[in-house]
Design a protein that fits this description.
231 residues; Four Helix Bundle (Hemerythrin (Met), subunit A)
């Protein structure tokens, strides 16, 4: 039985197609992920109260510019789908259909990939929330706060930049659950930005008199920046 036939057999009080159902589940998964990682409106004030302002940053505006670039790469594709699909009754708009992934070799692969995208997106939300809880008051866009502290617990005990790994997978899972190439363009922008940004961030930390030496030891204990055994 096809998914459309199964939906029809449910005798729902409203008409819904297979495509609408799958797109609706994708939007629900994306929204839940964003809700999970949202720290709350008072988070920034709490961080600044306990750890102070960001006082050390990469020279010039390069740190801020690369942060803007990866933010666009990570969140712009998701927001396009979150806004565009509900406004079109969860039917993929024509202009987005142009970027649809070609049909899968089998229904099992197609449905499996989309379900993996839903589950993966939720997993990203949970993992990022876990990371934020350990990062706590040391959260920053780029740079160090007045009272810096080394974070080497939770996901930071395995790789030095777990939040960036989550960011990479965010777009990959989005491509699967929306069955669309567009998030992969965002992934390319985000990954390129991370490659540029991570050395800049670490250089600022290593030069800091308060935690520079501790971070050197941390680099030896946790040798991988983002991907275990690879990078």
């Amino acid at each position: 039985m096809s998914l459309d036939s199964y939906i029809a057999s449910l005798n729902l009080p409203f008409a819904v197609t297979e495509s609408q159902l799958l797109n609706g589940l994708a939007c629900a998964s994306t929204f839940t992920m964003f809700y999970t990682i949202w720290p709350g409106s008072s988070y920034k004030q709490k961080v600044e109260k306990e750890a102070g302002q960001v006082v050390e940053m990469p020279p010039g505006k390069q740190g801020e510019l690369v942060t803007v670039a990866h933010t666009i790469g990570l969140f712009a594709p998701a927001l396009i789908f979150l806004i565009g699909l509900p406004m079109n009754k969860f039917v993929m708009p024509n202009w987005l259909q142009r970027y649809s992934i070609p049909p899968a070799p089998s229904p099992e692969i197609y449905y499996g990939a989309r379900v993996a995208g839903y589950i993966g997106s939720l997993g990203i939300g949970i993992t990022m929330d876990w990371g934020m809880r350990h990062l706590s008051t040391q959260w920053h866009i780029v740079g160090l706060r007045e009272r810096p502290k080394l974070v080497n617990t939770g996901p930071f005990a395995y790789i030095r930049h777990p939040m960036y790994l989550c960011g990479m997978f965010l777009d990959l899972f989005a491509a699967a659950m929306y069955w669309n190439w567009m998030p992969l363009a965002g992934a390319a922008l985000a990954i390129t930005s991370f490659i540029i940004k991570i050395p800049m961030e670490e250089e600022v930390i290593l030069k800091n008199k308060k935690i520079g030496e501790a971070y050197k030891r941390y680099q030896k204990d946790v040798p991988y920046r983002v991907i275990p055994y690879i990078w």
